[in-house]
Amino acid sequence: TALRYADAVKFTQSALLTQKEGNAGQRAPESIRRDIAAVSALYTELFKLSESRIVNPFIRIGHKPKKQETHIKDVPTGEELAAILANTSGIVRAAIYAMAGRGFRIGALKELHLQTRNGKTIFETRTKGKGQSGTLAADIVEAIASAGLPKIEPFAGISTATLTMRIERTLDKLAEQGIISGREATLTINGKPTARTCSKFSCHSFRHYFAVKEYRETGDIERLRKLLNHANVNTTQIYLQSLGLID
After folding, report:
1. Which residues pair with 115 in a beta bridge?
2. According to the model, what pLDDT value does residue 23 have?
């Protein structure tokens, strides 16, 4: 009840609203606008219920995040993915195959639980606090089996951080060898700036690959939302914009 317009403005510009958790960077402007609108709607409802005693300090908010120019993310081509898979093995290859073939976040792999029902492989996992389940294609199951991983919880024995490091080191080596796309970067090694060729891709690039392939094949954004385990279709739209698939 004591919140004033100036406080509301500070809130819309605060790190609480504009920053992702940890060091993950800025939240999307569309998400910030959505949250401001949600808080404003709450105060409007309180205004009615309190017989006009509680005013809406967000109703005149002038500061709204500007739309940022969309940066199109780098996504491996089919040929690059094939080259990556041809030059990797074991748990690294299995993880890449699973992310590119089913769109898993790398954090979902450690929680991946598999079981066979009626000749199909059913998976359950959890990522970002949300459960996800479905069927896993036979070629992904084969890639996991050929890596010699456990049948039920194939990635349980390795931490997400370690798996991420191993995959991204492998990608950097392939970029240095000219097998996949690279970019020039200056890294500090033993306290000295050193020029290196690094991969343009990260672990999340394989989830992007899956999204691009799926959307180009079906054009069904709601189906893609479910496959990517997004909470709402707005997130999927932002995702497709960042991949250059929709305006």
Report:
1. 122
2. 61
